[in-house]
């Protein structure tokens, strides 16, 4: 199982994610590319550290929404969204390659991630942006999403992921952040859910029913309080359960 986290979610003097601590335990780093968070200095620093520690680098692309942290849905015309996705990947690629590494995958952030679950036009635009950027990059997304369907149809590697600290609906989608219980705060519960998804391929949904989750990557949100300590616990629990934690093939 791959273990990923959202990193580089700072801007100027403002910081949010504990990048150095998270890079000690994750296998893939979703690096903010400046549209919902991150700037040139932050991207460079995270890429340098990720490369030095052998952590895979991914571009976390988003709607252009610094004020809303990329969590506000936007009706961006597909052609414009395609260009903006490619732009973000290109910006991060400069710093990844300068660090001796490469951008190897793309993961949408926030509202764009959730919109691409069901919106064919937005999902297709994201995938077209990935193709425009070049490099045969993998795409991370929710199992069964339109994003992964379009990625697969385009010949890209589609990587289904699960979320350690987010609640699921019975349909296998994420409970919207505005609803009660959308984020799981109890660390013990997060660890239990992580092992269950990795070993048994399922998790209890918000209504108490079992929801199937077939994933190759597990996300621990970098902006969750105590995220680094939580990620360490999740990794230790996965390994104790016999799960090999490594970047997805």
Spatial strand arrangement across the major sheet? 1-2-3-4-5-6-9
Sequence stretches where pLDDT stays below 50 over 5 or more residues: none
Count of helices?
A: 8
* Largest sheet, strands/sense/barrel: 7 strands, parallel, barrel
Q: How many β-strand runs?
A: 9
Q: Please state roughly what percent of the residues sit in beta strands, choosing from under 5%, 5-15%, 15-25%, 25-35%, 35-45% or over 45%.
A: 15-25%
User: What spatial form do the alpha-carbon principal axes imply?
Assistant: globular
State the order of secondary-structure elements, H for helix, E for strand: EHEHEHEHHEHEHEEEH
Helix share of residues? Answer: 25-40%
Determine the mean pLDDT. 94
Structural class: alpha/beta
Radius of gyration: 16 Å
Report, as a whole number of angstroms, the end-to-end distance. Answer: 10 Å
List its salient traits.
8 helices; 249 residues; alpha/beta
């Amino acid at each position: 199982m791959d273990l990923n986290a959202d990193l580089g979610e700072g801007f100027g003097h403002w910081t949010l994610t504990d990048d150095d601590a998270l890079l000690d335990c994750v296998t893939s780093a979703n690096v903010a590319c400046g549209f919902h968070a991150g700037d040139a200095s932050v991207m460079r620093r995270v890429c340098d550290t990720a490369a030095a520690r052998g952590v895979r680098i991914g571009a976390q692309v988003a709607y252009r929404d610094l004020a809303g942290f990329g969590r506000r849905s936007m009706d961006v015309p597909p052609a414009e969204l395609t260009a903006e996705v490619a732009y973000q990947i290109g910006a991060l690629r400069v710093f990844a390659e300068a660090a001796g590494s490469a951008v190897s995958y793309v993961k949408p952030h926030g509202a764009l991630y959730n919109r691409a679950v069901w919106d064919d036009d937005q999902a297709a635009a994201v995938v077209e942006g990935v193709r425009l950027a070049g490099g045969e990059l993998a795409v991370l997304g929710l199992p069964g999403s339109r994003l992964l369907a379009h990625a697969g149809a385009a010949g890209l590697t589609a990587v289904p992921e699960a979320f350690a600290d987010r609640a699921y609906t019975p349909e296998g989608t994420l409970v919207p952040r505005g609803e009660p219980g959308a984020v799981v705060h109890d660390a013990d519960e997060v660890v239990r859910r992580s092992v269950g998804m990795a070993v048994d391929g399922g998790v209890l949904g918000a209504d108490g029913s079992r929801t199937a989750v077939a994933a190759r990557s597990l996300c621990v949100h970098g902006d969750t309080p105590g995220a680094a300590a939580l990620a360490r616990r999740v990794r230790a629990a996965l390994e104790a359960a016999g799960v090999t934690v490594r970047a997805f093939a």
